[in-house]
Every structure is written in structure tokens, then in C-alpha cells.
Amino acid sequence: MIDPTPTTDEQVWNTAFIGLGANLGEAHQTLLKAIETLGRHADIRHLQLSPFYSSAPVQSHGPDYVNAVARLETRLTPYALLDVLQALETRFGRERPYRNAPRTLDLDILLFNNLVQNDPVLTLPHPRMHERAFVLQPLKNLAPDMMLAQGSLNDLLTACAGQRITQMH
Predict the structure, then answer these.
(1) Are 136 and 130 in contact (CB under 8 A)?
(2) pLDDT value of position 5
(3) What is the DSSP letter of 50?
(4) Is residue 3 included in any domain, yes or no?
């Protein structure tokens, strides 16, 4: 598999948006610790975090989720960033017993530059983000004028109006 993104040797900084979520344990604290750890990575800089939101599980069950979105710059390739995120999930106790299971930490690459790809390892942009208020609202906080292939964030949020999401203080 060929990764089209430049390597760290070329010192190119890529922009990525990461979805964060958790609904087991101390979810809010876990997200704060995970983002702090991510921000200390040598190949990540300019990390910005949206406000935190509480949301009901979508296509799942369990306690409400705590969600946020981070924007960052990285010299990592999409696959290397995915490895970093999955290692963080494991470090914070993530288990994958079944699809959409409650979780201690969930970190998803939502967007990586303008890269569009679909392979068994990574699909970009994230294939379901346009259907999820818990991604769209924090994304709107960071990039209010962003357009996705499916439409504006405002229009997509209107289509998700039935999903409960509340900004946390």
C-alpha cells in the first residue's frame, strides 16, 4: 500500500481533525488526558480543542458520551497518525468487543488535509461523520465555514436535529 502523504523527513505539516469520545469511566478526564498526551507528540503541533459535548449514544446503548473534536497539524502520515491514536485508545483501556460498544476512549481521524481514500485500514473523510451531531457541532466550533461533500455543517446539523447533544460547561 502506498501512502501518498509526505514523510516526516520532508517536514510537511498536514492538517487533521480528530473526533474524540468516551462513555465509560471518567470520560471527561480521559479525554483531557488523551488530548494532553497527543499534544506532547513530537510530530504534532498547534492542537486546538472544541468545547466538550454530552450526547446520547447513536446506534448503540450505554451512558451518554462526552465528545469533542481536535484540529492539529502533524508531520505524520494518515496511517502513522492512526497508529498513534489506536495506541492511545489501548493505553486508556479501549476494548472492542463488538461494533459501537461503549468505550473508555474513541479517537477517529475525521479529515486529513483534503485526502479522500477508502481502503480496509482507513477511510477518509470519516464515512459517517456527516450523520452525527456529536461530530458536526464540535467541528463547527473549530471550522464554522467548513463544507463537507454532503453539504455545509449547518445543513448537516439540521438533518441531525433529532440527536440529543448538549454543550458541557
Answers:
(1) yes
(2) 53
(3) P
(4) no
**Per the domain annotation, does 1 fall within a domain?**
no
Look at the chain and count its residues.
169
Single out the catalytic residue among 71, 75, 103, 132: 103
- CATH code assigned at 146: 3.30.70.560
40 noted as active-site residue: no
Is 106 noted as a catalytic residue in this protein?
Answer: yes
Integer Cα distance of 69 and 52 in angstroms: 8
Catalytic residue check, 94: yes
| Lowest-confidence segment of 49-63, 68-82, 89-103 by average pLDDT | 89-103
Domain span at residue 92? 8-167
- Given 40, 94, 99, 119, the catalytic residue: 94
The C-alpha atoms of residue 83 and residue 85 are separated, in whole angstroms, by 5
Q: Which of 9, 91, 96, 108 is catalytic?
A: 108
Catalytic annotation, pick one of 91, 106, 128, 132:
106
Q: Is 103 part of the annotated catalytic residue set?
A: yes
Band of pLDDT at residue 74, cut at 50, 70 and 90: very high
Angle at 31 between CA 55 and CA 50, to 5 degrees: 65
Helix (H, G, I), strand (E, B), or coil: what is residue 74?
Answer: strand
For the chain, what is the domain count? Answer: 1
